[in-house]
Design brief:
single chain; 665 residues; mainly alpha; Rossmann fold; 2 domains; 6-stranded mixed β-sheet; Acyltransferase_3; acyltransferase activity, transferring groups other than amino-acyl groups; SGNH
Length: 665
């Protein structure tokens, strides 16, 4: 990611500064920035892959040139890398820690401290790999998340020069070996994107082929002659391959894997086509505004994401307005330019410190970051810095069911190992909660009810897996089929279906799946209840409450209005109502009467947040639903047997539709 004049390889010649490479960097960094700010570039994340190919090409050009001239030194290579990367990165980390102390709530500040430690140890990609997943904190709360790609490059810079040096000393041709390594890495990436996608995304072994692609070109480009006209055409084709995915890919595109080939191959073609001679493509990429952005691309990459995170953290909701997203882009150029002008350039031009001196100073700086990160992490985000009311709302992040740890696996479901919420020795009614993460978060209410009424309780919850038969991916179908087998074996008194219905009840096929699920349960003479969806809020509730308290606003106005929630869930509620009519005997549980007041869905009660994000209830929020489940169980105990095919449609005053009694086998 250098923007200065560098020596390079090519028949013993030195390659002067190539402005078109900076133009290429500009396209890459703008793609990443536009992607992160959601400015109509859904595949802009491929800009990182463009950077990988560029880095592989430039670094290998430098190393191979110096090896050929007999002037290569590992110490000097690492000195250049430290000067180039380390100062700006450490300044960014330090600034984020300071801003985090002022702006972040304890849980997010604690994670920032841990990620700062990981970055100081050159392992940010490992940290974010291990902390990624469905239940991880949102990306918008992690100011150093983008450092994963920097860690990949740093690890490459540590290992790859050693490989080239060993090959050179043994007089082995590196080109074929680099190509072979790239093929192996790519093959692992192809497998990994399917079976271990998080590791494939974050780790060097499955990203190495992208860097190796650029390295291979640096080693072989002198042996790839082609006349000017077809070469120019291939260059433009490469630009198209590089840019098109930025607009066509989305977050649903399996990546990297095969999808990373077009942008990486395109970058390779562009670099090769512009290596020598004038061309229209080279003139385009050398356009001064592009080159200017390319020169500060490293600092812009470092700073744009913290600007996005800290602005989003407090001052925007789940969906930032376009002007705010555009403002993030514009504002990011300020600290990026300052970083380039007063950090990057001075340290790159500093020639007085030798390897030992530079390494010592870098170790001191890393040590300071390590200690600061450890203090932040060990103190759980320094909650003492916040007023009591704000700290109370921040406790929502710990007052929650640990969803990831509590997920029921497909294998456990197939073995019938469903967790017990409460177990009695006496014969009596029993209840099963079946659904996605929302079933898990309401389980404290069911557990409390079971203890109070001496009812057996069980739970079958799996993230992003609605309680619908013959629905979803293969593993989701296997899982739900296993839960149904458990129902057939154990025959609980009632099964309560709980899911984020608005996301899954969209089509006639989805409705048919719900009907089939209900009837399959009823075929076992087991009663069925469907719990409607809790309100989805406009933004993360702990932050919204803290912000309201900070500015003296009424926290009672933080939650969405009941009529807004009704509009949002109208489609799914209509489907649930139709299913109730199609399958007589279904009880419909409405949580909103228990979670609302004065026309608003409650966000807090008695100084405690009822959500720990924008849709999942805290334990405090879930326990407000205990009377709803108690009413359901009591209705089972006292309801008379209904005539066949006839459902009672009256509701009690708190949102539980009455349920006809059927005898258990």
């Amino acid at each position: 990611m250098d923007g200065e004049k560098k020596p390079a390889v090519g028949g013993g010649l030195r390659l002067s500064y190539r402005p078109e490479i900076d133009g290429l960097r500009a396209i890459a960094v703008l793609a990443v920035v536009f992607y992160h700010t959601q400015l109509r570039m859904p595949g802009g994340y491929v800009g990182v892959d463009v950077f990988f190919v560029i880095s592989g090409f430039l670094i290998t050009s430098l190393i191979a040139g110096e090896l050929a001239a007999g002037t290569f030194s590992l110490e000097q290579f690492w000195v250049r890398r430290i000067r180039r990367i380390f100062p700006a990165a450490m300044v960014t980390v330090a600034a984020c820690l300071v801003l985090g102390f002022v702006l972040l709530l304890p849980t997010d500040f604690e994670e920032l401290g841990r990620s700062a430690i990981a970055q100081a140890l050159l392992g940010a990609n490992f940290f974010f790999w291990k902390t990624s997943g469905y239940f991880a904190a949102p990306a918008e709360t992690k100011p150093l998340l983008h450092f994963w790609s920097l860690a990949v490059e740093e690890q490459f810079y540590l290992l790859f020069p050693l490989i080239l040096l060993v090959l050179h000393r043994r007089r082995m041709t590196p080109g074929k070996l680099v190509a072979g390594g790239a093929i192996v890495s790519f093959a692992v990436s192809l497998v990994g994107v399917r079976w271990f996608p998080d590791a494939t995304f974050y780790l060097l072994p499955t990203r190495a082929w992208e860097l190796a692609l650029g390295a291979w070109l640096a080693l072989r480009r002198g042996k790839l002659p082609l006349p000017g006209f077809p070469r120019a055409g291939l260059g433009w084709a490469g630009l198209a391959l590089m840019v098109t995915p930025m607009f066509l890919y989305t977050t649903d595109t399996p990546f990297p894997g095969l999808a990373a080939v077009p942008p990486c191959l395109g970058t390779l073609l562009v670099i090769w086509a512009t290596t020598s001679g004038e061309s229209s493509l080279r003139r385009l990429l050398s356009w001064r505004p592009l080159v200017a952005i390319g020169l500060i691309s490293y600092s812009l990459y470092l700073w744009h994401w913290p600007v996005k995170v800290f602005s989003h953290y407090w001052f925007t909701g789940l969906y930032s307005p376009a002007w705010m997203r555009l403002a993030v882009v514009v504002v990011s150029f300020g600290p990026a330019w300052l970083s380039w002008r007063y950090v990057e350039r001075p340290f790159r031009q500093q020639r007085q410190w030798g390897f030992g001196q530079l390494l010592f100073r870098a170790a001191i700086a890393s040590g300071v970051v390590l200690v600061a990160g450890w203090l932040v992490s060990a103190s759980k985000g320094v909650p003492q810095r916040l007023p009591d009311e704000i700290a109370g709302y921040a406790e929502a992040y710990t007052d929650r069911v640990e969803l990831a740890e509590a997920d029921l696996t497909v294998e456990a479901a197939e073995q019938g190992a469903l967790p017990e919420l409460f177990h009695t020795t006496a014969a009596g009614p029993s209840i099963l909660l079946w659904g996605d993460s929302h079933a898990r978060v309401v389980s404290p209410a069911v557990e409390t009810m079971c203890r109070e009424l001496r009812v057996d309780g069980y739970r079958a919850s799996r993230s992003a897996t609605a309680s619908l038969l013959d629905w979803g991916e293969a593993d989701q179908r296997r899982y739900n089929a296993a839960v149904l087998r458990w129902i057939k074996t154990h025959r609980p008194t009632v099964v309560v279906l709980v899911s984020r219905w608005e996301k899954v009840l969209r089509t006639p096929e989805d409705e048919a799946s719900l009907v089939a699920t209900v009837k399959a349960i009823q075929a076992e003479r087991v009663r069925v209840a469907i719990m409607r969806q809790v309100a989805s809020q406009r933004r993360e509730i702990p932050k919204a409450l803290a912000l309201a308290a900070m500015f003296g606003d009424d926290v009672a106005q933080v939650g969405v209005r009941v009529d807004q929630h009704a509009r949002f869930t109208r489609r799914s509620n209509q489907i649930i109502d139709r299913v109730g009519r199609a399958a007589p005997g279904v009880a419909v549980l409405d949580p909103i009467p228990y979670l609302s007041k004065d026309g608003r869905c409650l966000a807090a009660l008695s100084g405690r947040a009822l959500y720990y994000d924008y849709q999942h209830l805290t334990r405090a929020g879930a326990r407000l639903l205990t009377p709803m489940f108690a009413s359901l169980v009591r209705s089972i105990s006292v309801a008379p047997t209904a005539p066949a095919g006839r459902a009672r449609e009256d509701r009690d005053a708190r949102g539980v539709s009455a349920l006809p009694r059927t005898s258990r086998r």
